[in-house]
Amino acid sequence: AEFVESQQTVDHLVYRGYRYRPKKINLTTVNWICVRGACKGSATTPADPGQGSAVTEDNHISHAPDPGELEVFTIRSTMKSLAVERPAEPPRRIVADAITGASQVKM
């Protein structure tokens, strides 16, 4: 499981090729729902990351995982983080670094 910041600065869960947004945060668990509106996919993780990253999921019957969508989402999130970390850096350098970083992860 991986947590990636969305454009609204809310963490999204990326797991087995699907992306989830938080639905409900309890004391011990976080309930997630698929970011695709019509999909009934859901997942549950421990609320405390120190408790491990066990994920339970179900109900992704309306669509298959989309690796391209996840890669675009991850690159966009990386660009945003790099822009905040290096405000004086030219945008073309930030874009290049984000794309290079994504390509290296796939290898």
Note down, in words, how this protein is organized.
The structure is a single chain. This protein has 107 residues and is of the alpha+beta class. The protein is built from two helices and six strands. A six-stranded antiparallel beta sheet has the order 1-2-3-4-5-6, covered by helices on one side. Strand 1 and strand 2 form a beta hairpin. Helix 1 packs across helix 2. The protein is globular and about 40 Å long. The mean pLDDT is 81.
Radius of gyration: 15 Å
Strand order of the largest sheet: 1-2-3-4-5-6
The chain-level mean pLDDT equals 81
Q: Extract low-pLDDT stretches.
A: none
Distance between the termini: 19 Å
Characterize the overall form: globular
Strand content: 25-35%
What's the tally of helices? 2
Report the count of strand segments: 6
- The amount of helix comes to 25-40%
Largest sheet: 6 strands, antiparallel
The chain-level structural class is: alpha+beta
Helices and strands in order:
Elements: E1 2-5, E2 11-15, E3 18-25, E4 29-34, E5 42-46, E6 56-58, H1 67-85, H2 91-106
Helix pairs in contact: 1-2
Features:
107 residues; six-stranded antiparallel β-sheet; 6 strands; alpha+beta; 2 helices; globular
